[in-house]
Every structure is written in structure tokens, then in C-alpha cells.
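Appendix B. Chain record.
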Amino acid sequence: MTAILIVLTSHATLGDTGRGTGFYVSEAAHPWEVFTKAGHDVTVASVLGGDPPRDGDTAGHEDFLAFLGHDTPAVADVDPARFDAVLLAGGHGTMWDFPDSTALQSLVRQVYEQGGVVGAVCHGPAGLVGVTLTGGGALVAGRDVAGFTDEEERLVGLSDVVPFALQRRLEDLGARHTGAAPWQPWVVRDGRLVTGQNPASATGVAEAMLDALQTR
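C-alpha cells predicted for this chain:
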């Protein structure tokens, strides 16, 4: 049985706006449904562990939330050797804690270098920007990727709130970022790296990850 890890943010505040944030529920729930229906063993962790903050509509995702409960292991306490794949779910909270988590960077690098599949959706690729491979290069350098676009960030009015522009950062690291029109599904697979643009892309990312697991 294939073991897949879904990682959630633990960051709950949207900059200085006074608004809350967290992981975007559908971006974790839809992949969880794809993975579990395919018969895989799924674990959900968060950067700090415990009950991760949520954002987005929870309607229709009761099964996932019941599975999640109120306790997740911290990424630092997860053994990367157990997992064949890791998915970084999005939500604006990821922009604050994913890039600075050395535990997350180490986990992603180890899963990838042991032949596993790495996926990320929407703002989830924020967890890829600090990942360097053993040889010293950035994981995303020279790779085709997708993520929440600068245009989408502008349309939700948060370009001046997030700590950096995700699309631009990926491009600065040498990634070849592509995207669809705002809010349209867009999934990019480059070998064992699978990324998606926005919430509408979450199911497609999970399906592409399963394809990558079968053909790795």
C-alpha cells in the first residue's frame, strides 16, 4: 500500500489585516478523497502539529474533517522514509510558515530524493521555495511548475499582504511557471514534481500524483 502525506499550514493570521487564515479546506479534502478512494494510506500533518487553522468553506468536506479531527503530528515528528509521496496543501497561511520550516524542507527533499512524488497546490508551492537538493540546487530550478498566480493574488486584494509574490519567487529560483486564466484548473507535472494553480486544481494535482507514482 502506498503511503501519502498531506501537509497543512499552522499559520492563522493574514498579515496585518486582522483576518484569519490557515489551510484551504478543499485543497486538502479533495486530494484526501482521491487518495483514500484509490486505496492509499494517508496521513495528515501540520507545521507545528495540533489542530491546524482552517480557511474556506467546509460544507461537503465533513468526512475529511472527521478524519482530520483536532490533532495532527508536527512535520518535525514525521519520518520521511515512511512516505511514497507528499502533498503540500495551500491556503494563504502557507506563505508565512512553509518557506521557513527547515523540517518541511528536509522532509520534501528526503521524499523526493528517495524516489517519491512531491505535489503542491495553490499557495502550497511556498513550501518548495526553500528546498535544495543534496547537490545544492533548488528543487524547482529548471522545472515546469504552477502555483497561485500574481494576477490571482492581485484579484483577491492580497498582493501587498503576503510576504512575497509566489509566482515571482518560483521564477526567480529558475522555475518555468505557467498558468491558466484566473480560477481555472491548471496542473503541471514535471517528472515526480506535480503542482497546481488554485483550489480548482486540487483534484487534478492528486490524480497526477497517482499517475506519477505508477510511472516513477
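Further analysis of this model is presented in Appendix C.
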